[in-house]
Amino acid sequence: MLYHVEMTVKLPPDMSAERAAEIKATEKAYAQELQRQGKWRHLWRVAGSYANVSVFDVEDNAELQEIISGLPLFPYMEIRVKPLCRHPSSVRDDDS
Amino acid sequence: MLYHVEMTVKLPPDMSAERAAEIKATEKAYAQELQRQGKWRHLWRVAGSYANVSVFDVEDNAELQEIISGLPLFPYMEIRVKPLCRHPSSVRDDDS
Amino acid sequence: MLYHVEMTVKLPPDMSAERAAEIKATEKAYAQELQRQGKWRHLWRVAGSYANVSVFDVEDNAELQEIISGLPLFPYMEIRVKPLCRHPSSVRDDDS
Amino acid sequence: MLYHVEMTVKLPPDMSAERAAEIKATEKAYAQELQRQGKWRHLWRVAGSYANVSVFDVEDNAELQEIISGLPLFPYMEIRVKPLCRHPSSVRDDDS
Amino acid sequence: MLYHVEMTVKLPPDMSAERAAEIKATEKAYAQELQRQGKWRHLWRVAGSYANVSVFDVEDNAELQEIISGLPLFPYMEIRVKPLCRHPSSVRDDDS
Amino acid sequence: MLYHVEMTVKLPPDMSAERAAEIKATEKAYAQELQRQGKWRHLWRVAGSYANVSVFDVEDNAELQEIISGLPLFPYMEIRVKPLCRHPSSVRDDDS
Amino acid sequence: MLYHVEMTVKLPPDMSAERAAEIKATEKAYAQELQRQGKWRHLWRVAGSYANVSVFDVEDNAELQEIISGLPLFPYMEIRVKPLCRHPSSVRDDDS
Amino acid sequence: MLYHVEMTVKLPPDMSAERAAEIKATEKAYAQELQRQGKWRHLWRVAGSYANVSVFDVEDNAELQEIISGLPLFPYMEIRVKPLCRHPSSVRDDDS
Amino acid sequence: MLYHVEMTVKLPPDMSAERAAEIKATEKAYAQELQRQGKWRHLWRVAGSYANVSVFDVEDNAELQEIISGLPLFPYMEIRVKPLCRHPSSVRDDDS
Amino acid sequence: MLYHVEMTVKLPPDMSAERAAEIKATEKAYAQELQRQGKWRHLWRVAGSYANVSVFDVEDNAELQEIISGLPLFPYMEIRVKPLCRHPSSVRDDDS
């Protein structure tokens, strides 16, 4: 089942560069593992921002919550979730 | 080049059912043709709404404008556009 | 799977009283049938408004969309959806 | 009498992990006690967020205020309250 | 029990002057009867607007809904409700 | 002359409990003195919040400013002011 | 006593040009008479808009309401009111 | 002197296609004449919208108002104005 | 040329009382000097707030920027600017 | 390809004057180099603010992201991006 998730990162201005680098590295590994598992289906940067647009493919609401709340950057992000479903005009078989 | 587009349809309450059906049919044909050409890469319904989330793959800003402003439902939609680019943590080769 | 849905009704000021009564009666029958099926689990009026707060229990995002978009008042409502899941502090066995 | 309450937790970024864990544990015990008393009737997590949707069943506005302002996380939450009442289309006897 | 209610009137621009005068007269009689019963405790005009601030004193959420939804101007108003209770610094015995 | 004032308290998360208690005690004494003088006519807690709704009865805009800006919690509050006047449907002689 | 008032005119798109011209002429006469009386102290156009910024000098909230609600364009304007008083840094004797 | 102006066109849904075409043609001629005079220095379409971003080079606020309020589409546009001036980091001689 | 400027002061909660007093004194001297020069034409306090409404009379956008950005409180204010011009209904010769 | 970018600078109130001066100097050099390369086509100050309006001329969304995220002030700015294209009423050959 698909979910549309927008994440905007807001790091506290007094976080040290080392700590920020560390969190970002952990986040990257976490995101890439989920992509390889097929759960984080799309991940795009919004140009000109520190934000992304993502599409997750998970079992249900509970798994979405588990994944999102486990993100290393979770405490520092504004997150908006929209549940998705097949659009009646869609022609792609593999997009829902 | 990818663009993230959200469209929310707001038909005037006094539009006749016939006129609405006609526009929707034209919109569907238009959307499916663009999907087949590869320009309308993703099209999802936002569950519980008369809205969609789409990703377009076009040459440039001008082609995006040409396609969006040509939508039969264009006069009746609220539309938000975000330019996308590759996310540094993305692992998919075909997603940018 | 549970979804939290808020619906605010905005009937066009020039809709006739007969047409309004007709739609509301159809809406009521539709809502009661879905409650009896267990799909519309909770339905409350927000005091001092023409709005409700509801909880739906459906198979997935697609069924939510099917039910919501089938509401007779759908064209006349502002609707906000939030996917729900079990809260780690919940003690109720039958509430997720 | 029922009230719909949405709570979004915003912990200060410089709160220590120990202090956060301590508050959360107290909050959990407080929430579970109120659920057992029947005053905190529903408690759901909003998927993909650090927020909940709750329904309280209390005597009056004053008891709602007493309970909400007593939450250990109260100073760190954005809270929105809506008074609820029975919906004319509701079929459940025990839901108001 | 007290509720704070703000009402802003937005009459459709094409409502006839006769119809508007008729509704306003009915509204006035309705409001004055409720004030005499003690249920509409305060009613003030917000200076420079077609809006009021009111305080209702009713049994519960259900009675508030019954009264508000029965207002002749109800279909033409934006309404915001806040449940009130005694403030710990209040010195008035008759104000809660 | 009456003014409607909403105040929402936002204490800095790093204010010490002692300092907070001290300010709140001063605020309470100040608020009670003004109530006794008849200048702070109504003071209600908004249930489920750290906010109040108040009605002030003062000479003019200047006295309102003097009183509000003298509140011990003034630097820590979001404040919204609305000038009030008699509503044409009001039946109370002592409410304007 | 001074009040700051912003007015934005939103004429219904289907109002006839004759009717609009008639209202505007009445509004102009009304505004000029109030300026001559000294009650409408300042009246500026916000450049690039159909809006004005005004300062009224009236007895009290009630007179402000009487004047504003008597504006011929009152049903077609969004209006925001702010009560003003002397600024402690002001050097003008005649500006409060 | 430069001004940044954003215009979003919102034609009434019941305006006839002929009337719309007529206004747009007049608007185009008006806009092109002002560009040739050097007063409408930049005019861009915001991709995916019926909106533009413009920069005007006029004598003063009054001339800006005269030009904007004279736009044939003026009654059907949302308009936001920002006064501009030279940026201390600008290297262009002809851009202020 | 006139500009309407609203300024809302938001001092950081951890600024020392000495530092705050110092900035305010400098701000006051600066504001009074500009008023004496005729450039800061009006300065009013918004009653019940730490905000002002001002009207500046300066040469052009650049001088406005120079004055505003030179305010000692500039880093601690939310500022909104509107360019003004003569209103066609104004009767004052000296107010534009 | 053109992009419209608005940037509002919000420096943390506890950043030292030295650090702020350092970042601003780096930002200025960066901005001027990009202007000389023709990539930062326009850069204007919004009068009365610590904000700018800019137009970038870059290859694609990815280059825009590279440039914007490389700004020394990037962590301290609110940034809004709009993709631009040629307006059908534009008469300038070199403005798209």
UniProtKB/TrEMBL annotation, chains A, B, C, D, E, F, G, H, I, J:
Q: Which InterPro entries match?
A: Dimeric_a/b-barrel (IPR011008), MLI_dom (IPR026029), Muconolactone_d_Isoase (IPR003464)
What Pfam families does this protein's entry cite? MIase
Q: Which reaction does it catalyse?
A: (S)-muconolactone = (4,5-dihydro-5-oxofuran-2-yl)-acetate
Keyword terms of this UniProt record: Aromatic hydrocarbons catabolism, Isomerase
The record's top EC class is isomerase
Q: Name one GO molecular function term.
A: muconolactone delta-isomerase activity
Subunit structure of this chain's protein: Homodecamer.
What's the protein here called?
A: Muconolactone Delta-isomerase
